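Researcher: I'm comparing several assemblies side by side, and this is the next one on my list. It has 712 residues spread over two chains. Same procedure as the others: predict the full complex and return the structure.
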Amino acid sequence: MSERLLEVKDLGVDFTTEDGVVHAVDGVSFELDRGKVLGIVGESGSGKSVTAMTIMGLTRDINARFRGEVSYQGRNLLEISDTEMQNFRGNEIGMIFQDPMTSLNPVYRIGEQIAEAIRAHEHVDKQNAHKRAVELLRQVGIPNPESRVDDFPHQFSGGMRQRAMIAMALSCNPAILIADEPTTALDVTIQAQIVELISKLKDDFNSAVIMITHDLGVVADIADEIAVMYAGRIVERGPTRELFYDPQHPYTWGLLGSIPRLDRAKQERLHSITGAPPSLIQLPQGCKFRPRCPHAFEKCKEEPALENRVETPGHLDRCWLDVETKRSLRDATISGDQTEAA
Amino acid sequence: MSTNGGGPLIAVRHVKKYFPIRKGLLQREVARVHAVDDVSFEVQEGETLGLVGESGCGKSTLGRTIVRLLEPTAGEIVFRGQEIENFGARRLRPLRREMQMVFQDPYASLNPRKRVGTIIGDPLKIHGIGDRASRKAQVEELLETVGLSPEHYNRFPHEFSGGQRQRIGIARALALRPKLIVADEPVSALDVSIQSQMLNLLEDLQNEFHLTYIFVAHDLAVVRHVSDRIAVMYLGKLVELSPAEELYQRPIMPYTEALLSAVPIPDPDLARKRKRIVLEGDVPSPINPPSGCRFHPRCRYATQVCSEIEPPLVDYGAGHLAACHHPLNVDAATLASVQAAPESPAAADAAALPHDSAGESDPVGTGSSS
């Protein structure tokens, strides 16, 4: 009964630079249905933002090479013209960026910026666009929208600016909202407000959300499905509960173990993933996580495919270890010396 | 070197920091930003004090005032028995060797035109420690201490990742073998996996060099991991001060409760079950802070008294202080015997002790009480 909105198939993005070819995204596939929230989690440079921006057609450049398919209602977004893309952006898919301080123009009033977005897509006069802007600000929870609509961005706090960005992204009722680290620059209290707002708006507008973050905690209670990215690839993907309670990839364990947990007894030492992510120009041979993986063995010199290896269908991972071994190894990483909380 | 006979390493007493807002031709002062407003606490040697609160609560200003990058408007700062709040640049110079700072943004806090060796070695040079060769040896040793390699000596900051840059910042702070390090959001710009590396490094360094930390951050999960005691600030005021674990199990001030409940928990079942207290709105302006308890406009327990009388910091025993008219998680017996603490702000009414508890609360949502 759920309607498929977006299907990404084997997406690859390469950028030619002076230093060589950057393999930013390689073989990424996922689907998004109406009413669902997909969380994409990974470190800086894992390709999560490039994936999102490619869907929005924002990575188009003479130095960019694309492979695969991004199909939205039967059309491949990688192949449509720039003009078509322009029309599509905002109307069908809206995007919120990480930094609300830099993504608003400081010399235009908030209302003008929202009205401009509306008028770029629809034939409405200035007055009506302004009215819509007030209404949108009200929907995203800005107090006194009638007067705040004429404020400049610097008169808004960080949380309010992010709300204004959300209002702008929603101005044309897009079917999909892509939120790229929407809460990273914000305080925890404001972060909770914004996550709640996004989840409420998703229901109000009956849309779907792609939530990109480096913090698994942020997506734990709102995502239906989570994809973990590493070095341009999805290394594990599955329903949210599966991913948290039966994680299969050592990188996912590492991410889970790195977070100081309020809900558990204080750990003596946090688990940390040693080293740093690999260069996307010269990727390691085989499994890309191998140089940092404490469980790597001979077979890892060959890259594993993203496959279903557990009982639950739809839970995929890229790791050669057999399921039983993983289940016995992972607790040491995720919870340190603690025993798993029941 | 002066010793201070077992006293606190640093004591902050009724410190205020106001920033004037000037307007017009004569640059007359028209208003003041009450960034830090009458805050008192002590930090013992070897201890880590976490300083938490939302943006704009004055935690960074306080951190900078403590290391005297800013001059306090009023109050005392006592470092190893010496009152340093009025020290001028010359008298502060020797003290700079003993207190250092690690900054939030590893991209903005390193000079892009200087080599790593110079960045870390400059503090040594400025203080005239050693000759060129011995300084180089020391810097190389420091690079190894923070998990970098001596070969990085001649590189520039742009050649490093965010986590590595933060290590350079830490090495620079360590160069003079300080007693106190004020770390201002040292991990909030980093990815989670790098964050945990950095927290472990800070812990190792504390053990190795017997450091005292004041750890400024907005992430309560991170703060809990590193701190012995935690001070919660709101709009320039210290609203709760408590041993770390105690604060998480038994928050007294509703603001702390709300902060704790906003921390995301990476456990979907628990996250859905947990009752989130989402604070409405933003932190009010510190130019005209609300009357009475500054948190009252956003507090779900607020009553008439909260908007009229500023609550004193009340001592609930075992070093747990909180400023609230309607404290949480306090039983009647404790309430009957509480006293205002000497850390209480002068403006607060010391006689306005709380009479009733607002109830029990388990904001993290793991306890058996729910």
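Model: For your comparison table: The mean pLDDT of chain B is 89.
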